[in-house]
Amino acid sequence: MKIVSLLPSATEIVAVLGAADSLVGVSHGCDYPSEVCELPVVTSCVVPKEASSSEIDAVVRAQLQDSEALYAIDTDLLDRIAPDVIVTQALCDVCAVSGVDVEAAVTGLPGNPAIVNMEPFSLGDVITTIQRLGDALGLDEKAEQVVGGLQARIDAVAQRTASHINYRPKTIVLDWIDPPFVSGHWMHDLIDLAGGEDIMGTRDTPSYTSDWDSLRAMRPDVLVFACCGFSEGRTRLELSRAGVDQILESFSAAGTRVFVFDGNALFSRPGPRLVDSLELLAHHLHPDVHPMPEIIL
After folding, report:
1. Cystine design at 205: which of 46, 184, 186, 251 (Cβ 3.0–4.6 Å)?
2. What per-residue confidence (pLDDT) applies to 92?
3. Which residues contact 65 (CB under 8 A, 6 or more apart)?
């Protein structure tokens, strides 16, 4: 079976299911595990890679307002690869190629490849998606093993939180800087399981724009930056570029703990490493209760 993944999280799921050798093409954002970086890249993005946080936001808004795609698919390359399965998403047109665009692109491809759409909204959905993709690839038994291991780790965090934590710090997680975006989707689940209080009320909501005055008015105990598509180093650079590092002084002066994580590798990807993200957040919220996880970026 020849698999093309158009989503970094899907690529990670395929790999953890033991089917990385079946991958014959990936998206421009797929970078883990490292061996997939050698595979043919079948998508591209109109957003300049080194643009600032505010510039990227402006480009994205303009493209979406004009109903223009942010991503392009190399249909000629897809034709040559002739995949049996294409894994894509129908969750967010900003994050990756849309499911509609994929369906249009595969029309007429040899072999009429199957399209597997992934759209997990919660942490539970992510676990279900892993099982679903395993079933689609004929790897249902392996998927059950993977899901069982991930669920056991989630349950361990939940149990420690329930047994040992009496105080839940008021927590905000941002997945963009300029302007600030409050992280939605599965983030409520991570905050709650980790022992925090989701004071922005993100259950069952996508990410949404806010402003620094509104965020400061919430008086968070913890403010987390886990920016979509940005490493920890790139996020710190953007904080400085946008002058937000100066804004953060007022948060710190009010007693807010500020953390910066690798959003590209962890919190933004609805795949196996979302459980790593949970464990990492839990440790930083309650270091005396939750151990620091071993994470490979």
Report:
1. 184
2. 60
3. none
Show the tokens assigned to 136.
Answer: 């689609």
Pick the CATH number of 3-140 from 3.40.50.300, 3.40.50.1980, 3.40.1650.10, 3.90.190.20: 3.40.50.1980
The pLDDT score that the predictor gives to residue 97 is 67
State residue 144 phi and psi, 5-degree precision: -60, -40
CA–CA dist 27, 87 (Å, integer): 10
CA distances from 106 to 82, 83, 115 (A): 10, 10, 9
Decide: pTM greater than 0.90.
Answer: yes
Q: pLDDT (tens digit, 9 = 90+) per residue, 15-51?
A: 999 999 999 999 999 999 999 999 999 998 888 888 8
> Helical H runs in the chain?
8-16, 53-65, 75-81, 99-105, 123-136, 140-164, 187-194, 212-217, 232-241, 244-253, 273-285
Q: Are strands 114-118 and 85-89 parallel, antiparallel or unpaired?
A: parallel
| CATH 3.40.50.1980 boundaries in the chain | 3-140, 166-285
Residue 95 reports pLDDT greater than 70 = no
Nearest residue to 214 via CA among 227, 201, 203, 205: 201
Q: Is the Cα dihedral 226, 232, 233, 239 positive or negative?
A: positive
Would strands 3-5 and 85-89 be described as parallel, antiparallel, or unpaired? parallel
Residue 217 has pLDDT above 70, yes or no: yes
Tell the residue number behind the tokens 């692109």, with chain if given: 105
pLDDT at 278: 98
Joined tokens for residue 290 = 């939750």
- Domain 166-285: give its CATH architecture: 3-Layer(aba) Sandwich (3.40)
> Among 178, 208, 174, which Cα is nearest to 58's?
178
C-alpha distances (whole Å) from 134 to each of 2, 13, 143, 275 are 14, 9, 5, 18
Share of the chain above pLDDT 90, in %: 76
